[in-house]
């Protein structure tokens, strides 16, 4: 079978980033022969180490190279020596904005055998997808500071929301909902306080919803939504929300679905005008870096999302099943290293 | 013993508001003789019902009357017939802003015998106080909409943060932390993305912290904080955070500490330039209104906060103990009505 060649950019990053990415690539190699895809990988040295060395976060020239790739796999970036915000705004968010990743897709699913901090919750009770807007809202980077360091300082942050930006992410969320058995879409916002932005989301939901009569919609304030994530997670199927609320609720999502070691994400450009970027939700965890303690599962599940995005659906299901089977057997086992988990999943994929 | 006379404004509101307020007042009456306080109550008709009748939310004349009171007890306002935001911005937030309630104080405590949705968590594992800023941030009401209803619509919301506003709430939080056994204060923000506002909070925390060497401080991104609320709630003692993050995390706080039926709050003006306002965190719950199903405990615990605020510490402890004893015995009992719960707690207070 002739295989389609995929140019894959790999950004291992800092801390546990390179360790988990190595396992993600191991699994990708294991499934590639059966996927109809072959991967040409280019590794990019970006993150805290580069910033310490050169002061660069995401140079224009690198950004242009990334644009020429078909997809990006990112580990994690950051270390305590970099001031907060430098890599986040200069690298991660810059990539998401410049590559127009207007969908930040985050499944929240409790796999069989995985333990959750919630009492009385079973597999099947937690199975949702959060569609987080990725290119505007409070993340726009608009704001400033006046009279810094004086008693009269004023610091502002502006959430910028556009009909263009809201409509495209809401439409994507309806498509997701329409393709799932429960066909339910919940808008999460705070329209009783953030009245302008909330009203825009509400009107777009209503208007686009007319094209999807088969999808049930409802609305939940973000504060109530966080509560329901904890005490009624089964209420959610697909959730659409803004950039900041999505950031927050997907971390609770990770917590209830077995922890940050399992949470995958895709920064998606659904129009294909630039490569999409897949990354575990977790950070670089410098405290456990280099010890083989990191769980690569979130990265491997991000590889599943990458495969789905590239249309290699069968390969995606194969890796997902391997992860699911591995998770189901973890309870009985002792601690394994990062590489042992990667090996075990890769073996299931090939086997 | 001569008693100090307190002018108490009561805003029962809508839905279950009047039902839970009645029980709060019942308990207040029961403890008053022993409190050194006597209460002169004035009831204010505000909320959805008034808005439907007159279009008014919080008229200037009523606001002026409220200013003359010593404290306010509020039930809940709102019904599905009022457009989202009208009562929130026009009544609740208007009162908080005009009366300069710069501290929104929300204890998150798991009482003995109360069941939590978290597995393996015991009483004592959850005992924190959230100090939420109440008069600025994303709640400022600054923002607008351009080209509404067109494909070119832009909707903005601005978070406005001042050194003045941040310093006073941070200072209050340090005072709280210094008075508690663990003496720990955690700033919750998102300073890697909301860099201007986050940096202001960080600098103020550091500067004010020099005056409180006995208090340990740390920092947690809001997304990580929500995760820790679920899987390591014992990490938190006092939390200080902005208006929107505080809104969100205190709902998770309510969820983990036994639900919204138990969550109390105080909108506090620590300088005493205007009356403080005490209210349950829950809303008007129109679906269960008038059926005697609402749990008045959150309101009764708000009365505890009211008593503490007025300096009636012994009376506050007495009501708190009564609530705690009542909660400890609930597990074994069948469902009780709103009034039965109020009666039981009032009886313990007097007995
Ligand atoms: C690191 C940070 C900028 C990022 C975000 O806020 O989006 C992270 O928390 C995430 O969720 O991917
Ligand atoms: C009703 C709403 C305006 C309010 C808020 O957002 O502060 C509520 O959620 C609360 O927490 O008291």
Question: How would you describe this structure to a colleague?
Answer:
- The structure is a homodimer of 351-residue chains.
- Chain A has helices at 17-31, 48-54, 60-67, 86-98, 163-178, 195-209, 222-231, 243-256, 297-309, 313-330, 338-350, and strands at 4-13, 37-43, 71-76, 103-109, 127-133, 137-146, 154-162, 184-189, 216-221, 238-241, 264-268, 276-280.
- In chain A, a hairpin with a 7-residue loop joins β6 (137-146) and β7.
- A ten-stranded mixed sheet of chain A has the order 2-1-3-12-11-4-5-10-8-9, sandwiched between helices.
- Chain A is an alpha/beta fold.
- Chain A has eleven helices and twelve strands.
- The two termini of chain A are 19 Å apart.
- In chain A, α1 (17-31) crosses α9 (297-309), α5 crosses α6 and α7 runs parallel beside α8 (243-256).
- β7 (154-162) of chain A pairs antiparallel with β7 of chain B, so a sheet runs across the interface.
- One 3-isopropylmalic acid sits between chains B (88, 92-93, 247, 281) and A (192-193, 223).
- One 3-isopropylmalic acid (IPM) sits between chains B (88, 92-93, 247, 281) and A (192-193, 223).
- Chains A, B: Its cofactor is Mn(2+); Mg(2+).
- Chains A, B: Keywords: Amino-acid biosynthesis, Branched-chain amino acid biosynthesis, Cytoplasm, Leucine biosynthesis, Magnesium, Manganese, Metal-binding, NAD, Oxidoreductase.
- Chains A, B: NAD(+) binds at residues 283-295.
């Amino acid at each position: 079978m002739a295989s389609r060649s995929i140019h894959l950019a790999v950004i291992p990053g800092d801390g546990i980033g390179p360790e988990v990415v190595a396992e993600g690539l191991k699994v990708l190699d294991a499934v590639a022969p059966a996927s109809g895809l072959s991967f040409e990988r280019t590794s990019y040295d970006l993150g805290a180490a580069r910033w310490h060395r050169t002061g660069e976060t995401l140079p224009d020239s690198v950004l242009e190279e990334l644009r020429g790739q078909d997809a990006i796999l990112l580990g994690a970036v950051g270390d305590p020596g970099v001031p907060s915000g430098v890599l986040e705004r200069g690298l991660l968010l810059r990539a998401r904005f410049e590559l127009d990743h207007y969908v930040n897709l985050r499944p929240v699913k409790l796999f069989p055998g995985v333990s959750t901090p919630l009492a009385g919750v079973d597999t099947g009770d937690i199975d949702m997808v959060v569609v987080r807007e990725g290119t505007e809202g409070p993340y726009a980077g608009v704001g400033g500071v006046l009279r810094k360091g004086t008693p009269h300082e004023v610091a502002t942050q502006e959430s910028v929301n556009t009909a263009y930006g809201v409509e495209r992410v809401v439409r994507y969320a309806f498509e997701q909902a329409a393709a799932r058995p429960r066909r339910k879409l919940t808008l999460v916002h705070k329209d009783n306080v953030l009245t302008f932005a909330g009203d825009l989301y509400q009107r777009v939901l209503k208007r686009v919803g007319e094209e999807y009569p088969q999808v049930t919609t409802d609305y939940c304030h973000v504060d109530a939504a966080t509560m329901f994530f904890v005490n009624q997670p089964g209420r959610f199927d697909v959730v659409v929300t803004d950039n900041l609320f999505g950031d927050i609720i997907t971390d609770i999502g990770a917590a209830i679905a077995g922890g940050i070691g399992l949470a995958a994400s895709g920064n998606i450009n659904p129009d294909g005008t630039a490569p999409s970027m897949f990354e575990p939700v977790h950070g670089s965890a410098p405290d456990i870096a280099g010890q083989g303690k990191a769980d690569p599962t979130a990265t491997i599940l991000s590889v599943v999302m990458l495969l789905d995005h590239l249309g290699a659906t069968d390969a995606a299901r194969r890796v997902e099943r391997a992860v699911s089977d591995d998770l189901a057997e973890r309870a009985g086992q002792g601690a394994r290293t990062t590489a042992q988990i990667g090996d075990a999943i890769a073996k299931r994929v090939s086997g």
